[in-house]
Design goal:
Layout: H1 3-9, H2 65-76, E1 85-89, H3 95-109, E2 115-119, H4 120-132, H5 136-143, E3 148-152, H6 161-176, E4 180-185, H7 197-203, E5 207-211, H8 216-229, H9 236-245, H10 250-266, H11 273-279, H12 281-290, H13 295-306, H14 310-314, H15 320-336, H16 341-347, H17 353-369, H18 371-387
Helix pairs in contact: 2-3, 4-5, 8-9, 8-10, 13-15, 13-18, 15-17, 15-18, 16-17, 17-18
């Protein structure tokens, strides 16, 4: 009986080891000693897929239509066209939902497919543990023998040399084997700081799709879908009221709905507009305080402070003075208004929302480190508040 014969009957067996006693001088051994058992390989699985995150439960709108279509195409034909698929957007906009929907769809079409969803933090921690326990072979076998790899928040591997090195080789192994790779981030590859150029270029090999904040109609549709799935009865005017007040992300929308329903249930009261306003007042107050401040006013005062023309703030001029004035104005607009990143981008010459995000992050750091920038933000904000005394 040979090892391969056993494997044909028991394919799930990881290794076969024969124990052979001392050789008898008057007999021929019946079994040849086998080679040493290989290091155990953790089989890839479909673990970590949230059953709620499917294409059926995803609400499509203008802000995510392209990303949804790309994800659906990948799920229908993995590694056929868009490989890798790189999804990016702000927190709570549906990146994780779309990634896991791909996993569910592939699994439904091919139950034998090896699918793995992980966050970049999980990948990093598992790599560290494998190095510590001298199990890097097991780690590599796990990640390089799967059919669909879904990696969330890939921006967090930036700056981690060993993690980037391992992910680079994992990416190459899967891509060369025609396996599908899907990654997500809060920004496009070119805007991830300290990301190695070789990884950046590979992320751009396939298709990059962004997800923006949902518009009013999409926000209402999201709330209706959430109510339907959760079997909640909420009037349309209540949903419209919530959608008009909460514009940042889907998680806040869904959280607000759950909060209202829970309050009404625990207090045995009806879900009315006054009740909704009362329960969610801490979410609404900042937005109410910001409604009187216009981005045009912010641009005007910022331009005056830096002695540049207002039109230059929206133009594609990149001189240091104008770029600084523009970035400070974007930062102040984000702080003093309820405008989303895409909306602010529109007001500054139709710039992409990721440009605004980058400017705000840069100014957030500059305010703490550069006294001149901190003074500029303070004086511009004070001047704006003088023009809108009832707003803040």
């Amino acid at each position: 009986l040979r090892e391969q014969d056993l494997r044909s009957f028991l394919p799930e067996v990881q290794a076969v080891v024969f124990n052979v006693g001392p050789k008898d001088l008057f007999s021929t051994p019946l079994l040849e000693p086998s080679v040493r058992a290989p290091e155990k390989i953790s089989p890839p699985s479909k673990l970590f897929l949230n059953p709620r995150y499917t294409f059926d439960s995803f609400v499509v709108g203008a802000s995510n239509r392209f990303a949804h279509a790309a994800a659906l195409a990948v799920a229908e034909s993995p590694a056929a066209a868009y490989n890798p698929l790189f999804l990016y957007g702000g927190v709570g906009l549906g990146k994780t939902h779309l990634m896991q929907a791909i996993g569910h769809q592939v699994a439904a079409k091919n139950p034998n497919a090896k699918i793995l969803y992980i966050t970049s933090e999980m990948f990093t921690n598992e790599l560290i543990n494998s190095i510590r326990d001298d199990k890097t072979l097991s780690f590599r076998n796990k990640y390089r023998r799967i059919d669909v790899l879904l990696v969330d928040d890939v921006q967090f591997i930036a700056g981690k040399e060993s993690t980037q090195e391992e992910f680079f080789h994992t990416f190459n192994a899967l891509h060369e084997s025609n396996k599908q790779i899907v990654v997500s981030s809060d920004r496009p590859p070119k805007e991830i700081p300290t990301l190695e150029e070789r990884l950046r270029s590979r992320f751009e090999w396939g298709l990059t799709a962004d997800i923006q904040s949902p518009d009013f109609e999409t926000r209402i549709a999201i709330l209706k879908k959430k109510a339907e799935i959760s079997e909640l009865s909420v009037a349309d005017d209540i949903l419209a009221f919530i959608a008009s007040k909460i514009t940042s992300n889907i998680r806040e929308l869904e959280g607000a709905l759950i909060r209202i329903v829970a309050y009404a249930s625990l207090n045995d009261s009806e879900i009315s507009l006054p009740v909704t306003d009362y329960v969610l007042k801490d979410l609404f107050t900042p937005q109410k305080d910001k409604t009187n401040i216009s981005i045009d006013l912010i641009k005007k005062i910022s331009a005056e402070y830096y002695s540049v023309r207002i039109d230059d703030m929206s133009a594609k001029i990149r001189t240091k003075e104008i770029a600084t004035a523009r970035q400070v104005a974007m930062y102040v607009a984000r702080k003093l208004t309820s405008a989303s990143f895409p909306k602010i981008g529109e007001e500054f010459g139709g710039r992409d929302h990721t440009t605004v995000l980058h400017a705000c992050e840069k100014m957030e750091s500059a305010v703490k480190e550069d006294p001149e920038v901190a003074e500029a933000v303070e004086k511009i904000s004070a001047a704006i508040k003088k023009y809108t005394p009832q707003s803040v």
